[in-house]
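Changelog note: in this version the structure field was regenerated for every chain. One regenerated record is shown below for reference.
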Amino acid sequence: MKALVYSGTMQSEIREMALADVGAGEVIVDVHQCGICGSDMHAWHGLDERRTPPLILGHEAVGTARSGRFAGQRVVINPLMSCDECHFCQTGAEHLCASRELIGMRVAGAFAEQLVVKEDNLTVISDNLSDSNAALTEPLACAVNAVQLAIAHIPDNTANVHVLGGGAIGLLAAMVFSARGYANINIAETNAHRRKILTNLGNFNAYDPLAGRSDDGQIDIVLDAVGSGRTRAAASAMVRAGGVISHIGLQDNEAGLDTRRITLQQIHFTGSYCYSRNDFADAVQLLEKGLITGAGWAEVRGLEAGVQSFIDIHEGKAPPKIILNISA
């Protein structure tokens, strides 16, 4: 089968690869489309020791089940694998399982014509949901989790919200806030190309955080979709007393979080990683109902364009999301 393979630091290539063996409880999926995630970029930069080249990356996928009880049906893939036995798995928090991992880490991912995955990780989707929108399910589920953790502390939808980072996760989080009835939503994005795309969407106030604007101590909810020392410092300063910081970005582990201010001002800080099965199901419903789409910000390219797509993202020349059309 044809696949886009991460072959070395900042290197990828199209190769013919063998399909993995099908184990108990697993099925084959013919992949239609798969989005490029920030974690794929992290691996491509040679910064993820869990992803060793040569490796097929990719986990934001939609396709058609070839075998199993869903054979012949279009499905989205929940790429999160867990032990199914621990306390977290038994209580619906599989994303906290100590054994958790994603496809595209130890096992082959979805930048390939076919994929082997656990049948229980498939969700059938309707014909009304396009492949390109269905491919947003996994990152949308991440955003759903991060937003839910924030609004658990501040459920008032008149609250002002600032999302740091206008990539796919940041934008999807803003869309989830909007779908939950929040209207005062701002997105801080330093990349002018992305900022123009965000502005043209019309639902959010996109601004350049380097342009001298100051909101220190005034923001109810800050969602950090970057996760750098600089954004943690900015979030610590922006959030009001009693406010909330939802931290989902994983750019680095540098200092920046002002724990003294967080303590003295009783600010809620919550980390957010992946999603539960309920979050994933909520994401599917948001897409099925058309409340969230990729229109105007997600670009579909052919698999052959995958090599250049990683370069474009690295150079800041890409839209918030690039989705590779595997089956074209």
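Spot check on this record: The radius of gyration is 19 Å. Residues 137-151 form the longest helix (15 residues).
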